[in-house]
């Protein structure tokens, strides 16, 4: 239950991403600066934290072992995740993007067969390729049903072009984030804590953000003071606090893909926090009755997903003890 609670806390801070990105977009800011500035601000914050904990040298040593893998999967996990999220903010409200983002619950489950896990058998621990957790996936469908109910009225008011440009980038991001995260977990092998891993992936993804920033300077000029300040807030809340909490939660269940999927499912709460944030900052109206039903389904689906995953883990341990 502890990893799930930590996952919900990370969802609260992640929600600032969708709200502030939409606010910056409505204020005339470029999505290019919204994406790149966040990671530029994250570097000094994380360096201070990791150096204060005395773990900077260890991180540099481990990154030198597989530099190409760090570059590749960091750009996938951070670059192909956050760039599309910021791009989508130009076409859809933040809460709607947060809702679409919950497809990552299914995306993460569908990625399970591409990874291996350790299971207890009569012959001891064996490494096998993961299987799609269909029971947990069915609970995820309840979450998605709730999200659809929340969005159904607003989605009808958007043009097809806005829907396409708002949804497709988020769908791509929903696969990139868990893929990059899990690949880096394999490479690190439990040797790095959450702060180190986030800093390492941020540093390794910097070439992409520098290229994007150079293009942004040429295409749109320098960012405004307001966008710079808001990007710094996103870097602190979503980039540092939320990401570290989420990575810490995934580290707690590393090696168990069912529990990992349950932690990733907690991110469904982002849509609730994002809706509340936009009502506060952007003066959006109160949700309709249909939206409240959707919120209830999201929470119920999240709890059922966690329960099914824990029950399966308990059952596996019982079988192992009997063997």
UniProtKB/TrEMBL annotation:
A family per Pfam: EmrE
**Keyword set, alphabetical order:** Membrane, Transmembrane, Transmembrane helix
Segments passing through the bilayer: 31-50, 70-90, 96-115, 136-152, 158-177, 198-218, 230-249, 261-283, 289-308
Q: Does the keyword Membrane apply?
A: yes
Q: Does the keyword Hydrolase apply?
A: no
The entry's protein name is Multidrug resistance efflux transporter family protein
Q: Which organism is this entry from?
A: Fictibacillus terranigra
């Amino acid at each position: 239950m502890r990893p799930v609670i930590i996952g919900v806390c990370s969802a609260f801070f992640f929600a600032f991403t969708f709200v502030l990105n939409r606010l910056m977009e409505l204020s005339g800011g470029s999505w290019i600066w919204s994406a790149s500035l966040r990671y530029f601000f994250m570097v000094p914050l994380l360096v201070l934290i990791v150096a204060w904990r005395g773990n900077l040298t260890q991180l540099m040593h481990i990154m030198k072992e597989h530099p190409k893998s760090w570059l590749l999967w960091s750009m996938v996990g951070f670059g192909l995740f956050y760039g599309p999220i910021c791009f989508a903010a130009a076409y859809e409200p933040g809460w709607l993007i947060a809702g679409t983002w919950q497809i990552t619950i299914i995306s993460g489950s569908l990625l399970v067969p591409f990874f291996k896990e350790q299971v207890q058998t009569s012959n001891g621990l064996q490494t096998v390729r993961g299987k799609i957790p269909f029971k947990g996936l069915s609970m995820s469908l309840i979450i998605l049903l709730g999200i659809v109910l929340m969005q159904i009225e607003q989605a009808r008011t958007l043009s097809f072009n806005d829907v396409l440009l708002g949804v497709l980038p988020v769908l791509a991001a929903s696969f990139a984030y868990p893929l990059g995260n899990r690949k880096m977990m394999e490479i690190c092998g439990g040797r790095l804590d959450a702060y180190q891993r986030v800093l390492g992936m941020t540093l390794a993804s910097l070439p992409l953000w520098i290229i994007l920033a150079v293009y942004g300077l040429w295409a749109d000029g320098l960012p405004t003071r307001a966008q710079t300040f808001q990007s710094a807030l996103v870097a602190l809340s979503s980039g540092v606090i939320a990401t570290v909490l989420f990575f810490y939660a995934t580290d707690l269940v590393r090696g168990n893909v069912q529990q990992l999927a349950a932690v990733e499912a907690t991110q469904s709460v982002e849509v609730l926090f994002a809706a509340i944030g936009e009502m506060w900052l952007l003066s959006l109206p109160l949700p309709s009755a249909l939206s409240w039903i959707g919120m209830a389904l999201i929470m119920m689906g999240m709890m059922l997903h966690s329960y099914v995953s824990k029950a399966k883990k308990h059952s596996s341990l019982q079988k192992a003890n009997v063997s």
